[in-house]
Amino acid sequence: MEVQKTEKTEKSEKETHNKIDDFDNFEIDEDASRCSNGIITSNSYEELDIKIDLHDFDIEYKVFDHILVLFGKRKHHSNTSSPEKGRRYQAFVRPILLSPDMNSDKIVKEVENGITHIKVPKNGTFKKLLVSYN
């Protein structure tokens, strides 16, 4: 038994196919990444800049096979005279997959106004293409 496609079915299949093709072509802008617990990433042609806006945290990083892993921890000691003395400890781990064009050997960590920047430079293997129309 052969199923015949109608015009409506073909249009629906084409729309679904276009949505699937567009799935990998999205970008998360800097404003949208603000919802990610104080870690903001911005990607340019020169570098990936990861801004960590967690003032009281000690931030460290390690690279494992093109995965940048961010570690953050904060210790808080209570110095009050209340009967509820104690300590609080907070920590997070956040992996970020690095693309092959990023140079993980030259990562730079900077702290500016309480915001930690981790900058991953790119290899700079971009080619300028000249497109001409005849």
From TrEMBL:
Identify the stretch(es) annotated as Disordered.
Answer: 1-21
Q: Where is the signal peptide?
A: none
InterPro entries in UniProt: A-crystallin/Hsp20_dom, HSP20-like_chaperone
Gene3D superfamilies, alphabetized: 2.60.40.790
Can you give the residue ranges of the SHSP domain? 49-124
Q: Name one Pfam family in it.
A: HSP20
Name the chain's protein.
SHSP domain-containing protein
Q: From which organism does this entry originate?
A: Rhizophagus irregularis (strain DAOM 181602 / DAOM 197198 / MUCL 43194) (Arbuscular mycorrhizal fungus)
